[in-house]
Design goal:
The protein is 56% helix and 3% strand. The protein has 231 residues and is mainly α. Strands 1-2 form a two-stranded antiparallel ribbon.
Length: 231
């Protein structure tokens, strides 16, 4: 029977030194911190941690391996999403290599309604942060990619060129109404820009009718399995 991480640590790490050092590492202490606290070398600390991992071959929390290696997590989101303690995230972060895929791809995984809500809230907060802090940088990058000048954007959208210039220079943030104009007229969406979703195909969910990205397995809005009704 596969045991939980804490139980496995207590059962398999009989030596108090090993157990203490391993737990300190899982609490977020650096090798240098532990070495100083235990008055041993960093090399000895690393050796003990490697030995500890060899004793703890597999635990229940290893079930997160695939998702951990596929996506770029933050500790706080991971713990909330899976209802786990920080020690689990740090264990996985030491044992496996975290992935690089955007977390928005989690909508294509089999997740619960509560997890979907957590992800929705996280991405909405991230979008607001992007909008407040880096909106103009993403906007400039988008215009450069599509060979759009401020004048061209003004002609297409009906917004004034000084307004577009001010957005590019970061002197002003667009109103929600102008963000919608930019989205509809030239296809700029800051969140899609960050996730490189500027050129994607969509389909409609046959259950709720919402538009979602093509080839996702499940609808992010209602959770139903998607059919291939391509736009």
């Amino acid at each position: 029977m596969i045991k939980k991480l804490k139980d496995s640590i207590n059962e398999n790490l009989k030596k108090e030194e090993w157990r203490d050092i391993f737990l300190l590492r899982l609490q977020g202490k650096t090798l240098a911190d532990i070495a100083s606290e235990k008055e041993i070398s960093r090399q000895r600390v690393k050796q003990v941690i490697d030995l500890a991992f060899s004793k703890i071959s597999e635990v229940e929390e290893d079930k997160y391996k695939d998702l951990f290696e596929n996506y770029m997590w933050t500790e706080s989101l991971f713990c909330e999403f899976f209802n786990e303690e920080s020690i689990v995230f740090r264990y996985l972060n030491l044992k496996y290599k975290m992935g690089y895929n955007d977390l928005i791809g989690l909508y294509n995984e089999t997740i619960s309604e509560s997890q979907r809500n957590i992800l929705d809230e996280y991405l909405e907060c991230k979008e607001k942060q992007i909008s407040n802090d880096n909106w103009n940088n993403e906007f400039k990058a988008f215009l450069l990619k599509h060979s759009l000048t401020a004048k061209k954007v003004a002609d297409i959208t009906g917004l004034s060129k000084p307004t577009i210039d001010s957005y590019m220079q970061g002197k002003r943030k667009p109103t929600d109404a102008n963000k919608q104009i930019l989205k509809e007229k030239i296809g700029f969406d800051v969140l899609k820009s960050m996730y490189n979703f500027n050129e994607v195909e969509y389909e409609f969910c046959t259950n709720c009718g919402k538009k979602v990205i093509k080839n996702w397995k499940f609808c992010k809005f209602c959770g139903s399995e998607l059919k291939s009704d391509i736009i």
